[in-house]
Amino acid sequence: MKHFLELKNTTIGYSNPLVSEINSSLELGEVFLLMGNNGIGKTTLIKSILGQNKLLKGEISINGKSIQKLNSNEIASQIAIVFSKAEIPDNYTVTDLISLGKYIHYPYYFKLNETDKQEISEIINKLNLSKYQNKKLTELSDGNLQKAFIGRALAQNSPFIILDEPTTHLDEENKLMILSLLRNLAKSENKLILFSSHDWRLAKEFSDKIWWIKDKKLISGISEEVILNNPELITPKILNFNQTFHSPEIDAPKLEKEMMFSYLQKNFSQDLRKFKLTFKNDFWELNLDNFYDNCHNFQEIKHSLQTLIKTGNSN
């Protein structure tokens, strides 16, 4: 079976491997989330798929053809890329930017034909950018600017769109809008969407499958199954940045425990190991020997602890 994008025994990196022995495939109509910590190889993997990085081992093929054997125009006809920190052309309008996507098919001195112009107009409407079509890019909000760059990618008519951190610097409303748009494009126009992010929540809501780079390997699979098999993806991690802080015993669900630890280490330098905090029925029970106090929020906990410490009851 021929897959749209296939990686066979692929190792990527530079002088040393970043990700080794990748065997995975991507299909049209699917949304993939690429996850991994900074510096672990996400951007290198994207550049390798684009043919910009030489592979250390193996092969990457698109529609059965090796990426290494395709020229830049052939790759652009198959793959459109949207970067999170793209340069904004001076004095360009939304229409100007989206029109640039057509010039992978023509020399720069060609004029777009009426069919091209009609398609650009349809893309602008689809992205709800009609009232901004003649506005300069520098006058757009972050969300609308990101939509305009996605519009340029759509104008390429490439079946595969890669987005490197497309929701960086976006507020929650624009983030949801962009990701809903991408999922609708994948399903309605049979496009393959691959986007990178640090936010595992996006996997569950928007992606069909995950690519997760971990320990120099690529874990791939249906989003929900990858999360279930790798609970560390969603397990809160308590970061002890205050090395002199001694936490009380905290009996609570993982998220509440993480938030309480975070709050206490920012607000107390004292040794709190004699205290115990228990989360029950939406309130916190503070315990010290035979002393109990029910606190309904973090401020009440802080006040109660400070009082006990000040009066010497913690000794």
Characterise this structure:
- There is one protein chain.
- With 315 residues, the chain is α/β, with parallel strands linked by helices.
- It has two domains: 226 residues, Rossmann fold, CATH 3.40.50.300; 63 residues, no CATH class.
- It is 34% helix and 25% strand.
- The protein has ten helices and 14 strands.
- Strands 6-7-8-3-9-10 form a six-stranded mixed beta sheet, with helices on both faces.
- Helix 4 runs antiparallel to helix 5.
- 31% of the residues are buried.
- The model has no long low-confidence stretch (mean pLDDT 87).
- Keywords: ATP-binding, Nucleotide-binding, Transport.
- This is Iron complex transport system ATP-binding protein.
- InterPro entries: AAA+_ATPase, ABC_transporter-like_ATP-bd, Metal_Ion_Import_ABC, P-loop_NTPase.
Annotation field: number of helices: 10
The CATH homology group name of the largest domain: P-loop containing nucleotide triphosphate hydrolases
Unreliable stretches, pLDDT < 50, 5 or more residues?
A: none
Biggest beta-sheet profile: 6 strands, mixed
**CATH T-level fold name of the largest domain:** Rossmann fold
Q: Beta fraction of the residues?
A: 15-25%
The helical percent reads: 25-40%
GO molecular function: ATP binding; ATP hydrolysis activity
InterPro entries: AAA+_ATPase, ABC_transporter-like_ATP-bd, Metal_Ion_Import_ABC, P-loop_NTPase
Organism: Epilithonimonas arachidiradicis
Pfam families: ABC_tran (PF00005)
